[in-house]
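Structure tokens please, single chain.
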Amino acid sequence: MFKGILIEKDEAGYRASVQDIDDSQLPEGDVTVRVSHSSLNYKDGLAITGKGPVVRKFPMVPGIDIAGVVEASDNPDYQAGDRVLLNGWGVGETHWGGLAQKARLKGDWLVPLPAAFTPQQAVAIGTAGYTAMLCVLALEKHGVKPADGEIVVTGAAGGVGSVAIAVLAKLGYTVVAVSGRPAEADYLKQLGAAEIIDRSQFAAPGKPLARERWAGAVDVVGSHTLANVCASMKYRGVVTACGLAGGMDLPATVAPFILRGVTLVGIDSVMCPRPERLVAWQRLAADLDVAKLGLISHEVSLAEAVPTAAQLMDGQVRGRVVVDVNR
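Here you go.
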């Protein structure tokens, strides 16, 4: 038996609770992991609270991030004792995830835990931080350099935004943070933001083209915010889009793309190919100041994860939430 958060849906309704789970209930997979830590992401918040149709099978163990040690393996790439990490691949949606003391998974979904990080640090970065790194890599791939101008980061106090600011600032970029939480201004400046702008300036419908300002952008919000970011890009600016916290719609025009040559790059972290994941984690080990993780993250127990998920959905959580599944 092991403890885990189980999401159930039946005649009695939709609920998530910590339960004792038998090993025989674990799903199919060729690697069994003794989980050390998981985390709470926006998607986990949707799953646990039921505020979004994230979970596709019931019962389900949520948790899209996993760090732990291999307990048993039928996969030639892994053996008992290996430290491993998982982000995405549909765990917590269609396959049991990391908010439990054990997980059985496909070895192809795993990557070795970078030596630079402890399991706790790895999930403090988690899917959010790895997604932020994919955004940074996309900006670099499209030629955006620190000398080209300011980079705007929306949803700045969240997990993706926090790591994006820390990495971009360390790489020498001038970062402007967009946030709806004025109380987080000092936090964002400690991460490396040069300026903080209230999100209200981006949240309402805007003009097809605004004054040119940004050389690059990391957007986790979508909707009017993404449209307004695109409208205010410099000539040949690059926008990376990786979230929908403000909505799935994109009420924009083609003007920024055909008049300013703006590039809009979609960032998907869930099914991202393994070689790109490995590069992203190598770069995080090199380009993220581990000392900043103390600012970005805080830890909760497995039982505390359920109420914390509700706080996350209400916009009351800063940065990253690490879950120690063994306490």
